[in-house]
């Protein structure tokens, strides 16, 4: 009773194999694209592209999985006992195939590609404006989503579009390869990852004919059928079974997006919990029984991997500012935490809006960072470090406050969740108890989902929460509660950040950030 989960992410790929009966991880391995493969990438992204573009070669993701499968076999894992595999994929990336299964466009535009701002604007205008767009697909059109990437291909590479027979997301492409690829691979999609395309309404479960037609008259014919998220789509391809030793009946689960499986991998499978992922981007998400459609379009309306609803906030800027400051000043992670322990919460009124690259939430594709309240002598590593820490969390919280939930607990995942300074600042700013989760997040969630679906399909109905619970390890020693002494400092700071962000974006009626800064200084 072994189950495998793959996480095909922006920077690398992970493989985890779970022994369900023993409730343990049997095998864990990872490939880092930059160092383990020869594709000349940086952070998994092709270099030398036009400004705002972020692309990868889909063959790199397949090569990484082949390497992981080979190493798993060499490690002595009983591969033939793996009953099912599920794939977690970075969301929104566009992969296009021709009728024979060749890549019609050699590269995939990724979630953090900002080159499609014009396409987002044109699509929104074509359907009648932002409100109509949200009514059509439950979301606004963002450069991160897939619809604008398809439209960009149609507009700028029409010959490649004519060759295209299938539009895939990343995990759908991997599933197609796992089920046989050019030798009969299965071309299907599922509602969770699909809801991030901005072509299909997660509340009504319908494609938008208006948006499809605005992109291309033949787009609908190039979109695979939609199958449920909680079912297998087929079995592993014959060539892969023979090459790596899989049983021919090893099932391939429907798979899902990395955020949806990140929820499963942190035990966030019932309403009331929130997961915050602190990685290249920052995300916050929860599970709801009913759909939530944000009128502003800033909170993404998605589906999860079980058929329920999954409001998600994503900010493009998170680890980038932190990574830059520790590199610039030669700091270790431990030294950064030591510095933060010596600096005051609230930074005595100094605020950073950390838009180091185009920002997704709020929607500011051409953003730049802003430093507010800094005097000439304030650009020290301690004060800048505190500003980076608080600025990224405040930017995340600015979007989070729109989400329809009062969390009883926030579970943290990603590299920065191991930092005491980050954990405490999140607890203080979100005013909620937080705890980091051990483990592999999306890869773990994928393997657990594969086990859950397999059990269901074999007549053994088990609640996902019960199946997940033994594998979720909370780092209780890192659990943080909001510090009462910090709340009075952060409440005016949050208001100042909201006001400053709104003023910068030219929003009418926004509050005076200088007034809120004065209140912060009084509190300090």
The main sheet comes to:
7 strands, mixed
Cα distance, first to last residue?
58 Å
Give the helix proportion (percent range): 25-40%
Any guess at the CATH architecture of the largest domain?
2-Layer Sandwich
Structural class: alpha+beta
- What value does the average pLDDT take? 95
| Shape estimate | globular
* CATH level-4 homologous superfamily of the largest domain: ATPase, nucleotide binding domain
Nearest-angstrom radius of gyration?
23 Å
What is the domain total for the residues? Answer: 2
User: Total helix count?
Assistant: 19
How many runs of DSSP E, i.e. beta strands? 23
- Show unreliable segments: none
CATH class of the largest domain: Alpha Beta
β-strand amount: 15-25%
**CATH topology type of the largest domain:** Nucleotidyltransferase, domain 5
What do you see in this structure?
With 524 residues, this protein is an alpha+beta fold. The protein folds into 2 domains: 2-260 and 440-471, ATPase, nucleotide binding domain (Nucleotidyltransferase, domain 5, 2-Layer Sandwich), CATH 3.30.420; 268-436 and 483-524, Nucleotidyltransferase, domain 5 (2-Layer Sandwich), CATH 3.30.420.40. The strands form 7 sheets. Strands 1, 2, 3, 7, 13, 14 and 15 form a 7-stranded mixed β-sheet that branches. Strand 16 (273-278) and strand 17 form a beta hairpin. Helix 11 (258-265) packs across helix 16 (442-457) and helix 12 packs antiparallel against helix 14 (381-400). The chain is globular and about 70 Å long. The model has no long low-confidence stretch (mean pLDDT 95).
